[in-house]
Design a protein that fits this description.
Nucleotidyltransferase, domain 5, binds adenosine monophosphate, eight-stranded mixed beta sheet, six-stranded mixed beta sheet
């Protein structure tokens, strides 16, 4: 059985066709720079990356291209679109209404559009992809899987901000939390690796990628997430600011004459590791510069690791303990240096790293030292497989 997983961004459309019997990717790629003259189709064939210029004026045209590529004689992935049993769409924000994956019928899509104001940089694009896909695969089951859904179990004391309560009632201003599909996936994997039921574990899952969020997962339920009303809160990320004194925003808007949308752009695109290092949002480049003695690069990495460490301490307090600490996503899976910096000085919590195991950077491994009371795990995330599994449940 083949499930197609779609992840639509503002100018890109990522896709994977997953063979559910083997739980393996049959084919995956992306259409990049949608809406520009320089649109590109990128995919891997025989381990080589193929990049081809294409015409993709909008997401609908990009979606048509994906189906053409999948059925093309060059790629020979499938012969007919009937071979796609269901489609799983990643949707960033499901508001308070959607705490579980949902079949996409016209009314659901219209309802989802009402949450666009909660994730203006993500949801409109997700919905564009859904509409385009539904227009082409009219009869195929299509399911939305929400980034926010896993965090709908947060208790009220974790999701209510210190704002007038009427703003929660009027606008739904509360902590939602993001990367839910990833946190859930790695928490389930961690329980398997630890050979213990998820329901008996206290886990802290660190999704450290371009976007960064930390979750406290107790008895299999998300009880905390560092991202908030929007994916800006928490750790300073590649280009996003993370936690700020809200007074700073008001000060800067006045001093720099920034409109709300200017300020939004600064907070999303010019801050975090890029902002502090004034070099790059790519950790590999910042690490290289730090090794050569660049002070701001060193500071950016220190700010990052310090911030993650603070959340680990806070979430251990929230759960009254921790059994497993999980690192995932681009940085979490690939940077032993950052993992080391985060874990340094956490031995009072029972977190002690084995430097050799950490450097070996294996997958699905425990990198904790012999005396570590807490399992320290590196687990590659697989949001696409999780989305595909959810979509499968709706096939009749
Ligand atoms: P993701 O959003 O999960 O794709 O993660 C992207 C981030 O992972 C980027 O900031 C990359 O710089 C970072 N990354 C990927 N590989 C490495 C690596 N080997 N060392 C450090 N950071 C890495």
């Amino acid at each position: 059985m083949n499930i197609l997983v779609i992840n639509c961004g503002s100018s890109s459309l990522k896709y994977q066709l997953i063979d559910m019997e083997k739980e393996q990717i049959r084919f995956g790629g992306s259409i990049e720079r949608i809406g520009s003259e320089k649109a590109l189709s990128v995919y891997k064939k025989s381990r080589k990356t193929v990049k081809e210029p294409v015409t993709a004026r909008d997401h609908h045209q990009a979606m048509e291209l994906v189906f053409k590529i999948l059925t093309d004689s060059k790629t020979r992935v499938i012969r007919d679109l009937d071979e796609i049993s269901a489609v799983g769409h990643r949707v960033v924000h499901g508001g308070e209404k959607y705490s579980a994956p949902t079949v996409l019928v016209d009314e659901t899509i219209e309802e989802l559009e009402q949450f666009n104001y909660l994730a203006p940089l993500h949801n409109p694009q997700n919905i564009m992809g859904i509409r385009a896909c539904k227009a082409i695969l009219k009869e195929t089951t299509q399911v939305a899987v929400f980034d926010t859904a896993f965090h709908q179990t947060l208790p009220a004391e974790a999701y209510i901000y210190g704002l007038p309560y009427k703003y929660y009632q009027k606008y739904g201003i509360r902590r939602y939390g993001f990367h839910g599909t990833s946190h859930r996936y790695v928490a389930e994997q961690a329980a398997e690796l630890m050979k213990q039921p998820l329901e008996e574990l206290k886990l802290i899952t660190c999704h450290l990628g371009n976007g960064v969020s930390i979750s406290a997962v107790q008895k299999g339920l998300s009880v905390e997430n560092s991202m908030g009303f929007t994916p800006l809160e928490g750790i300073p990320m590649g280009t996003r600011c993370g936690n700020l004194d809200p007074g700073i925003l008001l000060f800067l808007m006045e001093k720099e004459g920034l409109s709300a949308s200017d300020a939004m752009a600064v907070l999303n695109r010019e801050c975090g590791i890029l902002g502090i290092s004034e070099l790059s949002n790519d950790f590999r480049e910042v690490q290289k510069a730090a090794e050569k003695g660049n002070q701001q690069a060193t500071l950016a990495l220190k700010v990052f690791a310090y911030s993650v460490k603070k959340y680990i301490g806070a979430y251990a307090a929230v759960m009254n303990g921790i059994d497993g600490l999980v690192f995932t996503a681009g940085i979490g899976e690939n940077s032993p240096e950052i993992r080391r910096e985060i874990c340094l000085g956490l031995d009072y919590l029972g977190i002690t790293l084995d430097d050799e195991k950490n450097k070996a950077a294996g997958r699905n491994v425990d990198i904790g030292g012999k005396q570590s009371k807490v399992k320290i795990l590196v687990i590659p995330t697989n949001e696409e497989l999780m989305i595909a599994k959810e979509a499968c449940k709706f096939i009749v």
